[in-house]
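Assemble and predict.
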Amino acid sequence: MNKLSNYQINYILSLADSTLILGQRNGEWCAHGPILEQDIAITNITLDLIGQARNFYQYAATLINEVEHKNETEDSLAYLRNERDFKNLLISELPNGDWAQTILRQFFFSSFMLLVFEELEKANDEQMAAIATKSIKEINYHVKWSSEWVIRLGDGTEESHNRMKNAIEALWMYTGEFFIPADYEMIDVASLKEKWLEKIKAVFEEATLSVPENTFMQTGGKNGIHTEHLGYILAEMQSLQRTYPGAEW
Amino acid sequence: MTLHDLEKAFQHKIDNEIKIEPKDWMPEAYRKTNLRQISQHAHSEIVGMLPEGNWISRAPSLKRKAILIAKVQDEAGHGLYLYSAAETLGTSREQMIDDLHSGKAKYSSIFNYPTLTWADMGAVGWLVDGAAILNQVMLCRTSYGPYARAMVRICKEESFHQRQGFETLLVLSKGTKEQRDMCQDAINRWWWPSLMMFGPKDSESTNSDQSMKWKIKRKTNDELRQNFIDMIAEQIKLLGMTLPDPDLKWNEERKHYDFGEINWEEFWNVVKGNGPCNKQRLAARNKAHDEGAWVRAAALAYSEKRKNRLNNKAA
């Protein structure tokens, strides 16, 4: 396989993995949300994320099968790869924590993905551009919904404000990875940082919150070096496919 | 008008198939029965999210995962319309939810059974939603307007769920031996509890007569149960599986399937709180509600602040 298609495949898989793993995490809220309307909203976002993941895995499978003459499917890529193969951003695999942490993670992640997809829409990879165009509509809503919640909780009660502060404390160090390019990345992620930070600061200001001084950042997800959480997510998610190899569902 | 005249006019409307609307006069017992039934139905949708939500993280393919999530989400939506319909009878959603959490209000006992394998997602869709639909199709013509209208919308989605459930089992029934065993086992476990969903026998049911007269119900528990058995006894042939009832047999004279005795002791035990998951279901609902209290308080505080700011600006 040539290097270029290998890069392309890895990049598509990294996007698939991030959206799937975050979908897997958000799905834990389904039936357990703080109020019915918001249970429905987070579940909607979960469905969008799983849908995006499926588009990426299907595209990756097509490319792999063309280049390597294999029989990959969206499910073999999602269910039969191991911890070190997954390239998702670390932030997507962190436990949900409380509603503040879940909201803030969605806000950081979706604000970043919106910029990524806007770049991909311009890419000369037609399939990628088509997935991006479809996803941008969804992500615009994810950004809007999560921004509104960041503001509501930041400027709500003393307790919600403190919980948002704790969430920022816990999650900030997982945002640096967004902008550190992996060798396979097809877009210049470093160049998105300023625009992302601008969005975060604007929403934080309205939420009476601030961006932390601490700038130490965790990295590794893009290259398959994960937190200890990922292994458990995969063990659970992949259990049926692993227990009954080759079965159709 | 005297009370007697009001009651006569009310019954006249019912007899002439005119829907009762929230602002219309209605007997207190009619209001109470509807409120009890609609809120119980809403609670069933919400508690019913738990046994299926149990398999979202382990759904065996991405397609199945998406279908399952969408289904559980539909149930949350059904809960919302039903709470709104019930609110038209004068009780707030908060009050109804408090009654659920305190154990005062009931929900369908079927959700007190555990979902043990993936095949349960199919069996719940096919049998549990299938049983629910028969009841709900009837309720599309119930006499209380808001309830009937909510049901029309819900029925469309529910029949889709039932087909998805059947299709899940169909795939398993054509799969490996382990999958076929899983399929049969799920049917065995969900069959009898599904029959219990229609409630006690007509001869034992306390609310039935008045509910029929007021057209809240249009078919009795036993009629609906028989319809369900006749339907499933045919559909199961397509799966090549069996129903766990040695007495199940077509009766040419009655033009219905005969069936064996339901274990009513089990039914009453689960109703009284002794089902395998009664405690877990209520604990999960209470936990979600309690842990969400600060979120709801923050949303309220924020909307108050915003209102004040807008008022100050205007002033």
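Residues 3-243 of chain A form a domain with the Ferritin fold (CATH 1.20.1260.10).
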